Each structure stands twice: as structure tokens, then as C-alpha cells.
Amino acid sequence: MEFLTRVSLKRPVSTLLALLALVVFGVSSILTFELELEAEVEMPMLAVNVEYRGADPETVDKLLAKPIEEYGMKLQGMSNVQTTSSEGRCFVIFTFQYGTDMDYVLNECKADMDELSLPEGCERPKVIKYKSTDATVLRIQADAAKDEDVLNYVNNTVKPRLEKQTSIAEAQVLGGESEYIRILLDEGLVEQYSVTLDTVQQALSASDYNIPADKIRQGSMDVRLSVTSTVDSIGELEFIPIKTASGAVITLRDIADVSYEIMRSDSISRYNGTEEVQIIVSKKQGESTVTASRQVLDEIKRLEAENSDIRLVVTSNYADEIIASLKDVGMTLLIGILLSMLTLFLFFGDIKASLIVGSSMPISLLATLILMSFAKLQLDIMTLGGLVIAIGMMVDSSIVVLESCFRSQEKGLDFRESAIRGTGEVTASIVASTITTVVVYAPIAVVEGMMGQLFQGLCITIIFAMLTSLIVSLTFIPLFFTFFKPTEKKNAPAVRIMETVSKRYAKAVRAIIPRRVIVVLLVIGLVAASVLMGLSLNRELDEDVDRGEFSVEARSRAGTTQDITDKNAVKYEEALLADPDIKEVYYSVRDNVATITAEIDKASGKTTNEKVDEYNRLWAKESGMDMSITAGYGGSTGAGNGTTITLTGDDYGELKKRVYEAMSELAKIDGVYDVKSQLSEGAPEAKIDIDPKKAMDAGLYRRTLLQ
User: Fold this and answer.
1) Is 684 helix (H, G, I), strand (E, B) or coil?
2) DSSP per residue, 523-564
3) 525-552 tens-digit pLDDT
4) Taking the CA of residue 668 as centre, how many other CA atoms within 13 Å lie in the half-sphere pointing to its CB?
5) Pair 431, 2: CB distance under 8 Å
6) pLDDT digit string (tens) for 250-273?
7) Structural element, H or E, at residue 131
8) What are phi and psi of 550, to 5 degrees?
9) CB proximity list for 436: less than 8 A, separation 6 or greater
């Protein structure tokens, strides 16, 4: 590879233009990167979710879960299946062997689910691939400057507009109240006028319609004709005509009270104790969190410009967390470059020599970013971590080249000849050294499975950095050596220190060599101690990232109304609001479950684990609600902070008994503070057993009975 050095010295202008191109394309490539906190790991799992409103768990299991399981077991690479059947919902997880083509399996599963014969009224099955990253992007609070129906506006305008964005999968609306028109019939007047409920319904339907008619000729044009009737106000609704059994005509106001009423949504939502309409925005799989956030924020600006009476306030934006984390790593990278250049100055003692070697880092970094952009890598903790690791190795080849150039100059050669000969003498060495590093990371970069997905970005980044630093050391370093003409100083600060260390090291080696047995035993002891210490270390698949928040789930007995659940859980919300360590509190209630997400104030200095342990101790003896407090951690594998134990059996009653026994024993273990199972007591229900013969004799059929 000596020809690279000769070409760079023979064509210095072209080499400098190449450097300028690296700067331009390197900086521009930064703007094209997708930004994420962590690498997205595609798990070999598919989830099938089916909703069947009103169905009890037994019906869901029989009519939905079992047919889905049977279809899923035929899929290629299937390993196991896990099913959760609850009221009105079936959730099935298919796990496959690593290496299975998940895109192919996903398409096959969707095709099978489309062919599946499901009960009438059941929603179409939703099939999704499991990803490790959190889908939630933003939390938005909506309120009105004037007396407006915020919930109605959010449901009919904001939600559809946000879900139209290419990166957004869903905008979930929680809390709020909306207006509706209530028609309250007077039972006495209805009986007096001999009017039935069907008659009233028909009159209401007949007052609001749009029926296409034929065309009419208007001059040379054919004009389409339609017949319409609309009701635009309560006043018009009150005067809708209704025909009685005797043939007389009355109005709706004669037999009913028509008024605007307030209806609470199917959930309760509060932010820092204040009632709100909350919108939780989730991104599509594979989409960038930062890109999705930008799209939503741009759409919010457009919505606020169109309607200034509605305020949309972003209370939580996970893109900010990602950008802040990446900025921290980027700053670490910059500090590493500066410290490396300072270290080089201490050893070379010449500012020119330090700048020549130091320049290899930003040049190699820009070239690496360009290659990363072509490889479709994203900027996340792993890839930036790879750059941080590579920074120290980027200068190795450049230092060797520059030192060799100095040695050649001592032979009386000019700067140009010294650059050519010095680089040529060490080319084989630095190429071999670089390849040695590359072959260490290359196998990890191509390995399949979860580990490959986790470390692929890091390994490829390091490989790119090492290859670019090799080329930089063979081209730009010799060129800069001839341009700036540095001088080597023998009395540099670090050189004097190293000479002293070398003398003492030589003395120590002379003393150690005769004592071979002691040295060997000492080495064996150190190795044994290292192994023992390694075995004592905590073992995790990946390190949890403390996001500074935790969630409290308070669950009432199945069937408990939403209002009662809110009444019972509000004390937990108030306790968190009164805690000076807590910055923000998100509270929501749906059915019998209250969910509270608390964000810890960074200024408090408290970790998430500390707060979780504190509230677990505080609420350990609370009764009346099933409490669960979990830390909000982010990790590349999406691993939780607990252990899952699966019990299987053919007899449901016996299995249920064993589950409760196991939970009781596990709760006695030291350090275990929360034990829960997927089994739950069913909600109270009433069943009406219809006698088919008697119903038929009375002229009552299925549709009539349901009404």
C-alpha cells in the first residue's frame, strides 16, 4: 500500500480536495442519520391481538385463542406459544427459533389470520412483530382557552391528523368530557299518546338523511340530484314530528325533554393533579423516534395555527431524552479527541507533530460517518460507543508513521524522502495491526440472533474507523509531515518521565527473573482470583438504563366501576404529588385499573430503584387494591427487572391452586417484594338462559332478544 503515500505526495492538491470532500460529506451525513437511544432488536416473536367486546374469558379462549393457536403451530420455525385470554380480548405470542425469516413468517401469519373463521362481531386479528424499543414518542395535554368541547375536537381532528403522519402508528386519547344530546322520554306522556320507542326512533331517523336521486337536464349540463334533510340544533330536534297510533301528529318536545349533557370518556386522566385530555402518541415499528417526534410537533404547530382556542402542550417527549443522551456521548467523544491531542503534545513536545497526529482523529471520524451513512446505520448509544472506543485506536497507526518519519530524517533525508521511506518501512506493520483488530470485531458484526443485532452497529463502526484511520495514516500524515516540517524534541515532558519509568522497570525485571517459582505462583494466584471475582459478578444480558421514572398500577377487584377505582387510587396519586423528589405525575384510570407514572426530579439525586423500594415498603401493607410498582428502564433487549415463572397443566382448577401456592412461597423469599400472576378473579356477570321453544312460541328471535 506504499503507492497511496506516493500518490498523496505527488498530488497534494488532489489529496487536499479529497480532505475537503470528506469534511463536506461527513458533516452533511450527520444530518441524515436516524437518532435512537439504543439499537432496535427484532425479537423472534409475533403477537396476535383480537378484540371481541362483551365476551367472557372462557368464550374468548374457546372461540378465539384455540383456533389461533392451531393456525400458529403450523408456522415455520415455531418454538412455543403463549396465550392470554381475558374479557373481550385474546392475546397470543408466537416464539420462533433464531434465524427464522420473520418477514416471511409475518406475511404467512397474516394470511392465515385472514382465513380464520371467527365469531360475528369480532374484530380482525392484528399481527405485529415484537421490537425491543419503546413505541411511545410523546405525551400531549390538550385544553381549551374558551368553553369548547376539547375531547370532541381531539377525537375528530387532532387524533386523525396525528395518525396520518407516516411515522405514527396510534394516538391514544385518555380522559376528558364531551357533550351529547340527551332525549329523555316521559313515560306517562308516551303512554298517553300511544307512542312506541320504535316510532320515536323512526321519526329521528327520518329527520336526518341524504338520499341520491336521478339526474336532471339543466341546459347542456346533467346535474345530479339528491334529497337531504338535516337537524342542526336542539330547537329543530324538539320540533321533529311524530305520528301517534290514532293518526295525530305531535312533536318530540311534547313527550320528551331534550337537552345537552356532559359525558365522561371511557377513562380518567390527570396531569400533576389536574383533569386533562391526554394524547399518547406511538410510532410505527422500525421508525425513528426523533423523526416521529418532529412530524408530530410540526403537525401540532399547524393545528394550533388553525385553532388558537385549543392548546396542545407536550408534557413528555422521549426524543428529547434521546438527543440529550447522544449529545452527552458526542461531548465525551470531543473531550476524548482533545485529551488525546494533549497526550500527544506531552510525548512529542512539538505542537506541529501533535496537530499532525491529532488531525487523523477528526479526518478518520468524518470518513467513518460517511461509511456509516452508506451502511444505513443509525446514531445510537452503541454506534457512538464504537466511535468512542475507536478514537484511542485511530491514532495508533499515525503515531507509528510519524515516529518512523522522524527516524528516517535522522539519516539525513529531506522531509519528502523521509515521509516516503518512513511510511514504507512500517506499512506492513500497521496494516497487519489494523487487520488484527478488524478480524476480532468482524465475526461479531455478522453473527445472527439477538447478540448480532445488539453489537452489529458497534462492531461495524469500529471496523470502519480502523480502516479509515489506516488510510489516513498512509496518505494525510506523510503529506502533513512534508507541509508542516515538525521537529522531534528529545526533552518532551512525557519522554523524561518514561525514561525514569524505564530505568526502574528494568531494575524490577532484573530482580524478578531469578525468582521464577514465586512469579509463576503469583500469576496463578492472580488468574484464580480473577476467575473467582468474575463468577461473583452480577450477570445480565444488557445494562438497564435508568430513565428516571416508575409506574404504579393499582388494580381493583374485577368488575369494580371506574369511579370507585378512581376513588380508591387517588390517595396514591396525592402521595406522589406531595413527594418533593417527584417532578411530574401522570394518572389514568380505565375500568378497574389505575395507572400512575411518576417522573423523578434529577435535582433530587434519587435513583429509580431507590424510589421504587421506598414506595414498595410504604405501600406493602396496603389493602383493597392489588399494587404493582415497576421501574421505567430502557434496555436493548426490553428485559424487565423481574423473573417470570411459567406453570403448565391440563386441569385449570388444579393449576390455579398450584399458582396461588407458588405465589405464597415466593412472597416469603428475602428481597421479593411483588409477586403477581396472570390469573385473576373473574368479574361478576349475569347470564340469561333462554328457552328456545318458549322464545319461538312468543315470537321472540335472537335479534329481538338482543335489542
Assistant:
1) coil
2) HHHHHHHHHHHHHHS---SSPPEEEEEEEEEEEPPTT--HHH
3) 999 999 999 888 776 666 666 678 888 8
4) 5
5) no
6) 888 888 888 877 776 778 888 888
7) strand 126-131
8) -145, 160
9) none
